[in-house]
Specification:
2 strands, mainly alpha
């Protein structure tokens, strides 16, 4: 018995390490994969191909597992969230990487928590930020400004329109994440993500057509590296990493899972410098330190408030009480790196339907499926 328990413990530890490594490395590498993919494929066509293929695979798998058919309202909500998060968020990241290094794009997208907090308070009726959160917001904005100060010994400033596109991507991503909390979406995280990616894929193709990208697309000239990058983004970024991330939320603490938000930008910068010879200047290092520190401050400030909020809102119901429900981990929207941009935003692993977790939403429980499974 002891030997069996020890073996199970070793397997569980190995699975945890593999899952964390997947989320850290895959979501951190999607920014570089986007850069390689758009070398020979126009940006919105590439994004449409990526989202539609990943969404179709996920949707088919979900329907085989659960034959319940999504309603028209589900599709309508998924289309709105998908257009905000994936077209406005991930799409602008993809476009910006024509002008901005992949590591810098990841660094700018790391500021999504700042916009989540601000928009939640200003536009969605959320709680007023605490002093610690305000300090984190200011620090994060300073980090962004470091990337735009005039050139000098610290290296060239980030491309102006590229920076504007990345900031707009953050706002779209944050708005879509906050809206998804109220949207009528399927209980299954994977089904909701699949529907959002399908809707976004269609929107990307419409956008690509309107912008004349088809005339600039030559199938014969698409490089092997670009095709492999699209496949990597679809299968690894939008499916495998999302699965690992969702599993981690069930077996470990949200605080541990949230560390991806700090690690992904570092991975992206290192991969960009190593594999694509992107410059790692004093400016980039300084901005990285400031922005990541701001995300840590925001996360820790919210995490400290949650226990008091929970105690105030839960009067220790008994199991005989019809309202009794085991308190779930704090809910949060995270695709920042996705990856789709969440989960990573660049990543985008797709949507969370208000039922998953992100470092900037650690204090407010959201709706969860009745079976407690998260999907």
């Amino acid at each position: 018995m002891d030997g069996s328990a020890g073996s199970q413990s070793r397997v569980s530890t190995l699975l945890l390490l593999l899952a964390f490594a997947t989320v850290y490395v895959v979501w951190g590498s999607t920014y570089l994969a986007i850069r390689f993919a758009i070398e020979t494929i126009p940006p919105f066509l590439m994004a449409g191909l990526r989202m539609l293929s990943a969404g179709a695979v996920l949707y088919g798998a979900c329907r085989l597992r659960d034959r319940a058919r999504p309603t028209w309202r589900h599709w309508r909500s998924a289309s709105v969230v998908g257009c905000l998060m994936l077209v406005g968020g991930n799409g602008l990241v993809t476009w910006a990487e024509q002008h901005v290094a992949s590591g810098l794009a990841a660094l700018m997208i790391a500021t999504v928590p700042l916009w989540m907090v601000l928009l939640d308070w200003v536009a969605f009726g959320g709680l007023r930020p605490t002093g610690g959160i305000v300090a984190g917001l200011i620090l994060g904005l300073v980090g962004v400004l470091i990337l735009r100060v005039p050139s000098g010994v610290a290296g060239e400033p980030i491309h102006f329109w590229g920076a504007i596109a990345l900031l707009a991507a953050c706002v779209f991503w944050a708005t879509g994440s906050l809206h998804s909390r109220r949207a009528e979406l399927p209980k299954s995280l994977f089904l909701a993500a699949a529907m959002e990616m399908i809707a976004a894929g269609v929107a990307f193709f419409v956008l690509a057509t309107a912008l004349g990208e088809w005339s600039r697309f030559d199938l014969a000239r698409v490089s092997t590296r670009s095709w492999l990058s699209v496949a990597y983004l679809s299968l690894f970024g939008s499916i495998l990493a999302l699965s690992a991330y969702t599993w981690l939320l069930r077996v470990t603490t949200p605080a541990r899972v949230a560390t991806y938000a700090y690690v992904n930008p570092v991975v992206a910068i290192l991969l960009g410098a190593t594999l694509a010879h992107e410059p790692m200047t004093l400016r980039v290092v300084a901005a990285a330190g400031v922005i990541i520190a701001s995300v840590v401050i925001i996360t820790m400030s919210k995490a400290r408030r949650r226990p008091a909020d929970v105690r105030a809102k839960t009067a220790a119901p008994t199991r005989d009480d019809p309202s009794f429900q085991t308190l779930p981990p704090p809910a949060m929207d995270v695709r920042q790196s996705s990856g789709v941009i969440v989960p990573p935003v660049s990543e985008v692993c797709g949507a969370t339907s208000g039922k998953t977790y992100a470092p900037w939403c650690l204090m407010r429980p959201q709706r969860t499926p009745s079976d407690g499974g998260g999907t």
